[in-house]
Amino acid sequence: MGFKMGIVGLPNVGKSTLFNALTRTAAAQAANFPFCTIEPNVGDVAVPDARLTRLAEIAKSREVIPTRMTFVDIAGLVRGASKGEGLGNQFLANIRETDAIAHVLRCFVDDDVTHVEGRIDPVADAETIETELMIADMDSIERRLANLSRKLRGGDKEAAEQDALLRRALAALEAGRPARTVEVSDDERKSWRMLQLLTSKPVLYVCNVEESSAGSGNAQSARVAEMAAAQGAAHVVISAQIEEEISQLAPDEAEMFLSEMGLEEPGLDRLIRAGYALLGLQTYFTVGPKEARAWTIARGTLAPQAAGVIHGDFERGFIRAETVAYEDYIACNGEAGAKEAGKFRVEGKGYEVKDGDVLHFLFNA
Hints:
single chain
């Protein structure tokens, strides 16, 4: 299970620079971290996780396979996109297919790079994009409600559920709030996701700052942080220019460059992890001499469903899961040591998999 994150923003905010850095970094990774271009504007990248490398070292795994996430570079939106301005309809459709949105905001001043609205104001930029997405959602909802009327007259229960959800979303939008502010019960969540409303998607604000502010941010990124906190959204500070430079360096040169800049890790690593956490995802591992591999699941996933991420037969024929917590696996220097220390557990169908679990599944074929 991975997910697809759309990178959006106004023109000239550093969005494509960031995407290019992501894709070049992925392409430059070792063979164990392959990069594949699904389409010209879609990149599949590894989720950085130092735990996987440590597990592979202990198990002497021949291959290391990280879990992955997909980034989609959505061409710059402009004011009026909801009405089709600047190929807006095409771009809005691309956003609809993503699971979350990374909203790149220009938090740097550079007279050589023009701003589409002639000023540097990341909060106003965020409001511009949000407004366009909200208008597009309202137009979409009104069309759908009209199309549901015949089914409602026929007593269609599914249509009635959709109608109720759409009206709740419309009420929020008309009050100036995005659809993601609507409270949805667990029973309604699947139907809610199927509505594919643009403003129902979780948002990660990406503050693109100048090189000197890459470590601590600046006054503009601080404003974005306040906005994100007020919305219950996430944010990350990054310098797309630095990331592009790093992406073109060999690993040892990149490490030296980061050290000289006073940075502990690439901003892209923080961006990827922030996006990964945005949807409540977590990782479990399968480890052996052949390979050490990371798998993505949602928080709260039970053992049979976690097994199903590997193969459907694992879920259908699930018998039990043998597991060691990551910390115990490391402390005991592997599975054998964990067994001797009493840290090896056998769990059944009701076990909720934890982040970092090292698992082995037993199943009937």
